[in-house]
Amino acid sequence: DEMRFGGRIRYGEWLDDAHYYGLEWEYLGLEQGNAAGSVTSDGSTIYGRPFFNALTGQQDAELVAFPSLLAGSADATVLSSFESGGVRLLVNLSEGSPADFPCGYSRWDFLIGYRYARLHDMVRINEDLTSLVGGNPGTFDISDGFDTRNTFHGADLGLKWQGHNQDVTLQLLAKVGLGN
């Protein structure tokens, strides 16, 4: 629910004087997102932690606090990060002069290159529970952790159109990533 800051850096250079071949480098990164929350009850308030029960195939809830049965606390932490980068070769497909296009100068480029992307998500949940049943005292410490990293390595293929008219530049880019 909160904004995350990030940035993109892109740099390119032409490999020839005619601007038919060029190289571009790009990096995109987002600030690590995190959230945390906790609940505590002496048993006077009912708290439950939702989860998907793989045995029943249904949504379920684990009690954290319930009157005359259970007192406890639960805290959860969530972290998420994303970054991506790549390098690509530009090859000019067509180029027009201001006389050919009423909007001014225009060009089409074919793109081919390498793309890397990484998404990392983590969830940690800890519970500290105490039985309130008189004949059955006890405490329970329960911890759940989920950690996933998705990494993409593949080819970038695309088309880029760029048009200039005096002080205005418009660029349209269509890319597809093929890889695993």
Task: Walk me through the structure.
This protein is an all-beta fold. Helices cover 0% and strands 77% of the residues. It has strands at 6-14, 21-41, 47-53, 58-65, 70-96, 105-131, 139-165, 168-179. The strands form two sheets. A six-stranded antiparallel beta sheet has the order 1-2-5-6-7-8, with no helix packed on it. Strands 3-4 form a two-stranded antiparallel ribbon. Strand 3 and strand 4 form a beta hairpin. It starts with 5 loop residues before the first strand and ends with a strand. The mean pLDDT is 90.
| Unreliable stretches | none
The biggest sheet, with number of strands, parallel, antiparallel or mixed sense and barrel status, is:
6 strands, antiparallel
Tell me the radius of gyration: 27 Å
End-to-end CA span: 30 Å
Oligomer: single chain
Element order, helices and strands? EEEEEEEE
Query: Based on DSSP secondary structure assignment, what is the total number of beta strands?
Result: 8
Helix/sheet category: mainly beta
Kindly estimate the percentage of residues that lie in beta strands according to DSSP.
over 45%
Biggest β-sheet: strands ordered side by side in the sheet: 1-2-5-6-7-8
Map the helices and strands.
Layout: E1 6-14, E2 21-41, E3 47-53, E4 58-65, E5 70-96, E6 105-131, E7 139-165, E8 168-179
Antiparallel strand pairs: 1-2, 2-5, 3-4, 5-6, 6-7, 7-8
